[in-house]
Amino acid sequence: MNLRILFCILLVIPLGQLGIDIYLPSLPAMQAHMHSTEQLIQLSLSLYILFAGLAQLVYGVLSDYFGRRKCLFIGLSIYIIASIGCAFANNIFYLLAFRILQGVGIGGGTVITNGIIGDAFSGKALAKAASYSTTVYASIPIIAPVIGGYIQEFFGWQYNFWLLAIATIAVFLVCIFLLPETLKQKVTTKPLKNLTTIALNQTFWRYVFGMALAFSIIIVFNTICPILLQTVFNLTPSQYGQTALFIGVAYLIGTFSNTKLLSYLSFSTLLKVGILMMFIGSAILLIIADLPYYNTYLFIAPIVLCTIGSGFIFPNLMGQCIGLYKKNAGTVSALMGAAVLLGCAVISWLVTYLPAKSVFSLPTVFIVLSLFSFINFFSMKER
Predict the structure, then answer these.
(1) Which residues have CB under 8 Å from 143's CB, separation 6+?
(2) 108 touches 71 (CB < 8 A)
(3) Contact (CB, 8 A) for 101 and 163
(4) H helices within the chain, ranges in order?
(5) Of 267, 274, 225, 261, which is closest to residue 246 (Cα–Cα)?
(6) pLDDT in tens, the chain (383 residues)
(7) Residue 239 · residue 231 · CB < 8 Å
């Protein structure tokens, strides 16, 4: 295994998720500062995810033709500029514009790292690299909300975006010196032909749909809970960050357990376990929401169970998707990433129409996601 390439991949991968999690404890403060509405401030998350997904489709195809390095550095440069723009935004519409630009920039980093994994690794090394990347990705929701909560309390929400810009500059410089071009043979066929071939594969879309449903567990939590927990449960920004830490740890437990259990259980069995955990957790959450009193830890516990289930589902389906078309790793990663994020963005956008301060909004959406996951699983044929 090429450790230098893996090291660079593991530095780039967290940046996209960091752009989601680090500013979440600041959402109520940002809403007040910009005299905005709950729906508009939540839209800053939905638009980021939406344009990150759209950008993946473009970057992935281009990286198969022009190389990984060049496209990666373009994306990181855009992300740096947009992060600085967010720090200077003085109203909600400027913020939304720069969040869109952030999504456009980081979409390149996300999909290109998947392409590099497909280029540089194969067999068990590919599975391990994908697992390491998913584990690092899962560590950000553990760390970022805690950091973001304290930044909000001691410095203000703008410094979250300054931290994003500085971290991305550091990663940019490391990759310039350590990351080689991994695309050995550039694709010569037409991009539309490659996309059409992949897009007509029903198995691919079942995997993607399952990934979107699983990841939406976390996205829906991120959309609703910063406002719900800080207004209804009366948590401070730092307390919210500490509470969100449990969700990050839960996803990490899920992905780590999945990695270990892959040696003993089949892909299909692990999917069943993950979906069942999502459904049970959602049902318990709905019961707790109907209690006459509010307790933060009691409310979070079933969300943790749902998130562990998501950690079983997402990496399995991601590995299956990448393995379908190894010769076009960039294109398949682009379409996979774009479709997953577009699905999550649509779900996140729909959730903004639900009352953010209602304890019933979250369990209702979770149950719907779990039911669709069951339906998708039974329509899926194991490879």
Answers:
(1) 248
(2) yes
(3) no
(4) 3-21, 27-33, 38-66, 68-88, 92-120, 123-154, 158-178, 191-199, 202-231, 237-261, 267-289, 296-324, 329-351, 361-378
(5) 225
(6) 588 888 999 999 999 989 999 999 999 999 999 999 989 999 999 999 999 988 888 887 788 788 889 999 999 999 999 999 999 999 999 999 999 999 999 988 877 887 788 788 877 777 778 778 877 877 888 889 999 999 999 999 999 999 999 999 999 999 999 988 888 776 655 656 667 778 778 888 999 999 999 999 999 999 999 999 999 999 999 999 999 989 988 988 998 888 788 888 887 888 899 999 999 999 999 999 988 888 898 999 999 999 999 999 998 888 788 777 766 666 777 788 788 989 999 999 999 999 888 899 999 999 999 999 999 888 875 54
(7) no
* Residues 263, 265, 266: CA angle, nearest 5 degrees: 105
CA 133 to chain centre: 12
Q: Which residue has the tokens 């991009």?
A: 191
**Which residues, in sequence order, are CB contacts of 381 under 8 Å at separation 6+?**
203, 206
Residue 370 in tokens: 């779990």
Q: Which domains does the chain have, with CATH numbers?
A: 10-378 (1.20.1250.20)
Residue 309 CA to residue 186 CA, distance in Å, equals: 38
In 3D space, the residue among 11, 277, 253, 310 whose CA is nearest the CA of residue 135 turns out to be: 253
Contact 183, 68 (CB under 8 A): yes
**236 in Cβ contact with 230 (< 8 Å):** yes
